[in-house]
Design brief:
This protein has 682 residues and is an alpha+beta fold. The protein folds into 5 domains: 164 residues, Beta-Lactamase, CATH 3.30.450.40; 150 residues, Beta-Lactamase (2-Layer Sandwich), CATH 3.30.450; 156 residues, 3-Layer(aba) Sandwich (Rossmann fold), CATH 3.40.50.300; 79 residues, Helicase, Ruva Protein, domain 3, CATH 1.10.8; 39 residues. The protein contains 23 helices and 25 strands. The chain has a 6-stranded antiparallel β-sheet. Helix 5 packs parallel to helix 9 and helix 17 crosses helix 19. The longest helix has 51 residues. The chain is elongated and about 140 Å long. The termini are far apart. It comes from Photobacterium chitinilyticum.
Length: 682
């Protein structure tokens, strides 16, 4: 051991220069270390008494490896975890622990020596000498013990340095996280609309986490509303989505726990519309609850464009960010409530948060009566029961049908539509059930009907009251048997179709007047949904006006940003007999007339329309309510008063308050002919 002093000097230098286990391992496995002759040196470290040991060793390619022991592997090499010194010959070691033969740290062992690393009665681990040569004398043993003691001091120094570094890093991270939470609070707390809040939050997350996609999910009476915001190519993409199937985020909803979604899960969710929305670029997501005062007010969905895990410290930070956003959402709600009590200004911004009241995409509502309708939609959507949608013309029956289809299990297929009033009676059966080539004059090729087109999907029959009476039994049979026959082919075709029908007529009155089959009526009336007219939900009119103005002006390339408060009040008080359809057309006309940034509304036209409506009421029409237009006596009375004339200002259709084509259709079903009353002209 003539080089012992120089080796101690080298070891001291290494002690001063090395702050990690890699430097120590490199020094101990250096060929220049002449104090001790050894092939390899391994080090086993333990962070505390109960911790599992970690083995550091160089492999055959001379690369430093780290092997973490577990309970199973530890039992295979039990001497690793004791506090004793061991000197064993290679054959004895392999005989006692044959599994070590395959371990890269214990290959080609002739002799094995393990010395515990103990400092101040604390076991730090141990050092393993593979194929070591030590002279069998007291002097050599003392030098060897001194050598291992210095290594122990060096290991203790490394552990303390790593601990200090970790504490310093933890303090730095906590300081950065605190500043980050202050920044995110400032970013969201002062926003006046949900869209501004989400957009500001996304910009913050993009800056700190390179996150380009985000959404906020909130409950809406049995279903969920999701506001998504994405950032790509310098542009913000904002959209609303609605769903009722929350299986993917069940833990977040029921247990208030974060939920991490993988790329595979997100890909599977993209096949269904009635689930949370994810853009095609999203490869992983973390959904965390937003909790304010022990109450969950929604969920934040953080998305990444890479399929990688979310570190626990990031998830914890996401939870703290969600708490700040929950506070901002509460402040936003309070601000909106206070704003309603403050006198309105002369002009109202159309960009105000009407999107907060968007339900099922295109349905805009904040009224209680409409919320009840949407509750019914959410209840019936997920089953295959037939739905009968009732409501005046222009109330949005087709939108409700689309919402039912979108939230159903058939949402992956398209919804096939058919307006019964727009199909001639002679072609009705062919349109509905299809026909074979040559089935009738003009049938030059085979045609697939609406039932077959809607197979595995939804068939929406609008204005079902206009369906010819002689075809109603065939529809009834198709509903009951799930089978149809094409015109010109005596072969049953099985179909799997969910039926949704709509009408603005009083089907029950039609049944009583023999204008509609009772058996079909009862088959369709499984789950009726009645949509209230716009006059019964005036609180929705300002939202609809803002929505239509924004959409139509954007389509026309106009920059309309406001509407006069007085004008909006006038629109809200108007009864709108044509309902939402009339309101939209009126707003479109207003946008066309607008030249500046403030919507120019021809309110004088509303006064004229209102006056005409009053005159119609004073003229006491034969039928005070449209429900009675199917009364046979009323139709005959109207024909007599109009001398058999149907159209025109003095015709029976005007007296009955219906369209000419509608009256003709009803007369055909009732077997009434107008020329029967021409003889009564005096």
């Amino acid at each position: 051991m003539e080089h012992f002093e120089s080796d101690l000097m080298n070891l001291s230098k290494a002690l001063l220069s090395s702050n990690d286990i890699s430097g120590l391992m490199t020094f101990l496995n250096n060929d220049d270390l002449s104090f001790i002759k050894v092939d390899r040196v391994n080090i086993i470290l333990k962070s505390d008494l109960d911790a599992l040991p970690v083995l550091y060793f160089f492999d055959q390619e001379n690369d430093l490896q780290c092997y973490q022991y577990n309970q199973n592997s530890l039992s295979l090499h039990s001497i690793v975890n004791d506090g004793c010194t061991h000197r064993i010959q290679g054959e004895a070691l392999y005989l006692s622990y044959p599994q070590l033969i395959e371990h890269p740290a214990y290959s080609n062992i002739d002799n094995y020596c393990k010395v515990p690393l103990v400092s101040a009665c604390k076991q730090l681990g141990s050092i393993e000498f593979i194929n070591v040569e030590i002279k069998d004398d007291n002097y050599s043993e003392k030098q060897f013990k001194l050598f291992t003691n210095m290594i122990t001091s060096m290991v203790e120094h490394i552990i303390e340095h790593e601990l200090a570094s970790n504490i310093a890093q933890q303090i730095s991270d906590e300081r950065n996280n605190f500043q980050m939470l202050v920044d995110v609070t400032n970013a969201v707390i002062s926003r006046s609309t949900k869209k501004e809040l989400i957009t500001s939050l996304l910009k913050f997350l993009y800056q700190h986490f390179s996150m380009s996609d985000l959404s906020i999910i909130q409950t809406h009476d049995g279903h969920y509303g999701q506001d998504y915001c994405g950032y790509s190519d310098g542009k913000i993409d904002y959209r609303s989505h609605f769903f009722s199937n929350d299986d993917a985020i069940k833990d977040a909803v029921e247990k208030n726990k974060p939920v991490v979604l993988s790329a595979l899960t997100i890909q599977q969710l993209s096949l269904n519309n009635n689930v949370p929305f994810f853009p095609l670029s999203a490869k992983s997501a973390c959904v965390v609850p937003m909790v304010f005062r022990n109450s969950t007010i929604g969920y934040i969905c953080y998305m990444q464009r890479e399929d990688k895990p979310y570190p626990p410290h990031d998830v914890e930070l996401f939870l703290q960010i969600a708490a700040r956003v929950a506070l901002a959402m509460h402040s936003l709600k309070v601000h909106e409530a206070i704003s309603k009590t403050i006198p309105t200004t002369d002009y109202i911004n159309i960009e105000e948060s009407y999107m907060d009241h968007a339900i099922f995409d295109d349905i805009i509502s904040q009224s209680e009566v409409m919320n009840k309708v949407l509750d019914q939609v959410a209840m019936v959507a997920d089953c295959d029961s037939t739905v009968l949608i009732l409501g005046e013309s222009g109330t949005g029956k087709e939108l409700i049908a689309q919402a039912i289809h979108k939230l159903s299990r058939r949402s992956n297929t398209r919804m096939v539509k058919m307006n019964c009033a727009a199909v001639p009676a002679g072609l009705f059966e062919s349109e509905l059930f299809g026909h074979e080539r040559g089935a009738f004059t003009g049938a030059i090729s085979q045609r697939v009907g609406r039932f077959e087109q809607a197979h595995k999907g939804t068939l929406f029959l609008d204005e079902i009251g206009d369906m010819p009476l002689d075809l109603q039994p065939k529809l009834l049979r198709a509903l009951q048997e799930n089978e149809i026959e094409r015109v010109g082919k005596n072969q049953l075709i099985s179909v799997d179709v969910r039926i949704v029908v709509a009408t603005n007529a009083n089907l029950l009155s039609m049944v009583e007047s023999k204008g509609f089959r009772s058996d079909l009526y009862y088959r369709l009336n499984v789950f009726p949904i009645k949509i209230p007219p716009l006059r019964e939900r005036p609180e929705d009119i300002p939202l609809l006006v803002k929505h239509f103005t924004r959409v139509i002006s954007k389509k026309m390339g106009k920059d309309i940003t406001a509407i006069a408060a007085e004008t909006l009040d006038t629109l809200s008080k108007f009864p709108w007999p044509g309902n939402v359809r009339e309101l939209r057309n009126f707003i479109e006309r207003s946008v066309i007339l607008t030249r500046g940034n403030v919507l120019s509304v021809p309110t004088e036209e509303l006064i004229t329309i209102s006056s005409l409506n009053n005159k119609m009421v004073k003229s006491k029409p034969i039928l005070p309510a449209s429900d009675n237009i199917f009364d046979r006596d009323a139709v005959i009375s109207a024909l007599r008063e109009s001398n058999g004339i149907i159209a025109g200002p003095r015709g029976a259709a005007v007296k009955l308050g219906v369209k000419r084509t509608t009256l003709l259709s009803r007369m055909q079903k009732m077997g009434i002919k107008s020329h029967d009353y021409l003889d009564e002209i005096g």
